[in-house]
Amino acid sequence: MPTLPAPVEALLEAALVGELTVVNAAGRPITYPLIPLYDGERIYLTSSVLFSRKLEHLKHDGRVSLSLTDPVALGGRTDRATIQGDALVIEDDPHHGWERLLAIWERKEPAIVAFLKMRVALPLFFERSLIEITPRRVLYWSDGQASTEPVITELEREAA
Amino acid sequence: MDRTKPLDIVHGLAKLATYPHHVLTWVDEAGYPVSVAVVAAMDAAAGRATFDAPAGLAVPTDRDVSLTGSHIRPQPGYGYDERRHVTVWGRANAAPDGRLAIRATHAWGWDEAEIPFFEYSERSVGRSRRYFDALSAERGTPVKPRLAPGWLALRATRLPFLTATIVPVLVGIAIAATDGAFDLPSAMLTILGAAFVQLGLNVANDVFDTTQGADDANVTPTQFSGGSRVIQYGLLSLRQMATIATAFYLAAAAIGIVLLAIRWSEALLVIGIVGFVVSLGYTAPPLKLVYRGLGEIAVAIGFGPLMLLGAYVVQTRGALSWEPFVASIPIALLVALILYVNEIPDRRGDAHAGKRTLPVRFSRRAVIRGYDVAVALAYAVIVVGVVAGLLPLPALLVLLTIPMARRVHDGLAPNYDNPYGLMAVMGVNIKVHAYAGLLLLAAYALVLLLGAFAPSMDLFVG
Fold first, then answer.
1. I want to staple B224 with a disulfide (CB 3.0 to 4.6 A). Which of B104, B255, B426, B442 is the partner?
2. For B373-426, how does the pLDDT look when each residue is reduced to its tens digit (9 = 90+)?
3. Cβ of B80 and A28 within 8 Å?
């Protein structure tokens, strides 16, 4: 499994929100703010079926980027990163499948557990697909400034 | 029902200008998106954004790039709020000052301060339908959203609203008991039968509001208004809901027949038939009472005099008196006010579907005044009923709910156009009816107790 640079892992751990960019059928980038969930190997995001257009784009083209840029959402950190990777949509069980990430999600949004108990009030919000990103390339700005060239890390691909 | 709106470019750029930094994104030669944080200057009127070229990265000029702003406010120990984001797209080119410029061609975004999350979700329900349709086609077997059976039953039948039935039926039984008529088996059957009628009504209401477009047109349903949404969400089909409604009505009819057999009276027969017609005709063609502006009156009659007198005559075997009728009036008014206030957030969708409820037809001022008049009338009937010797003195306990009604009044004006703010007001309004009914019940329990232990004490004026 490719290993992310340590500062980027720290950013992922801290990030309440990152910007997931997918590519639509016309080749245009579409960016969605989402909570990045990192299990130490892969990056996960979840998408309610209510907001599932991104999933359509991903099924058409799995090439994505996840950028971590907002100091407010990064606990005051000013370094920034963009992770390019290949995304897989996991939708075996939209009802319960995503709940395996609940513990990681809860660390970033503690209220989610209480919301889940009120599933009856928001049933479609809790029908969700998982987006699993395997990172392949990382751009990192230690000072967070676009005027500085990013440090680019090519991650080793798994053997087929 | 995917009804999220695109932004116009000027508006999109103006919004983007409020963000401290922007995420510039393009698709690189390998087909992967690349994002870098920049600080762009917006000229919304000119439809243009300019920014310094990022170091070491070539921004393409032969394809669309985007600029995104996104915002949250962290709430430690909770999560975050104040969610908003906006993206504009366009081709990048070199500006005369050596910077890069984008002439915007598209914009899109969401701000929960403008479209609350619940409304945004509701506007996106069509997207979830398409998702499940596509997944079903992909797998070759139906894939549907789910809820645990208990929660689904609760949601589909709107079970918590049963207080509207329980209150008048118990009061009717209690008044009959103070008149010396009480039969436990028929009392239990009355409660069950009346509950089935209401559950049938609740479910049938969803069926007919769906077939007539009212529930689909409503994008601001709340916990208390806008129907159960189980059909719209794909949790149950229209046919399943129609079957459930039919089952409830058949069960209610069976209990009604049993009650007629064991506690026969012409009054009960008439009340049963009228109740059935009012219940089914509430939303069902051809009557469609709620669509003709008669919903509030139908609910007042159905959940006031019909329920209370029906329960009363079951116990008395058809004997009628003024007391249960007078007691049913405040309950009728308060239950109609539940519907009336719950119709306020639904009024745009209702108007779209041709549902001429009072909040659809009247101005905000008239609707609030209507609430004040009706609730004042409910309490006035209690006082007049006690003074006239038709209701017992402890019935004045109902006046304890006046402060709650006052809270409803106070909450109507500031939340009139905010369905989610109105939710708390609707909750209190439901409690006004339930607590008033329970206090009336307590009053009759007191009458019964004193009748048993202090028969010389007269709790009626005059």
1. B426
2. 999 999 999 999 999 999 999 999 999 999 999 999 999 999 999 999 999 999
3. no
Count of CB contacts below 8 A, A vs B? Answer: 175
Cα A114 to Cα A36, A104, B160, B223, B329, distances in angstroms = 20, 15, 21, 17, 41
- Hey, is the C-beta of A97 within 8 angstroms of any chain B C-beta? no
Q: B82: which chain A residues are within 8 Å (Cβ-Cβ)? A: none
**Given CB atoms, is B291 within the 8 Å cutoff of chain A?**
no
Please give the sequence-ordered ranges of beta strands (E in DSSP) within A1-125, or none if there are none.
Answer: 18-23, 29-34, 37-38, 43-48, 63-68, 80-90
User: With the C-alpha atoms ordered A74, A80, A81, A87, is the resulting torsion angle positive or negative?
Assistant: positive
Confirm if B143 and A94 have CB atoms less than 8 A apart: yes
- Across the beta sheet with B33-38, what order do the strands follow? B33-38, B22-27, B64-75, B79-94, B100-111, B48-51, B41-43
State how far residue A17 is from chain B, nearest Cα, in angstroms.
Answer: 8
DSSP string across B131-169: HHHHHHHHHTS-------HHHHHHHHHTGGGGHHHHHHH
Cβ of A124 and B233 within 8 Å? Answer: yes
Question: What burial letters (b/e) apply to A65-101, b meaning 16+ CB within 10 Å?
Answer: bbbbbbbebbeebebbbbbbbbbebbbebbbebbeeb
State the amino acid at position A150 in one-letter form. P
Global pTM reads 0.90
Given a contact cutoff of 8 angstroms between Cβ atoms, the answer to whether A57 and B134 are in contact is: no
Whether the CB of A149 is below 8 Å from some CB of chain B: the reply is yes
Tell me the C-alpha to C-alpha distance, in Å, between residue B278 and each of A149, B270, B272.
Answer: 74, 12, 10
The answer to whether B282 touches B290, Cβ cutoff 8 Å, is yes
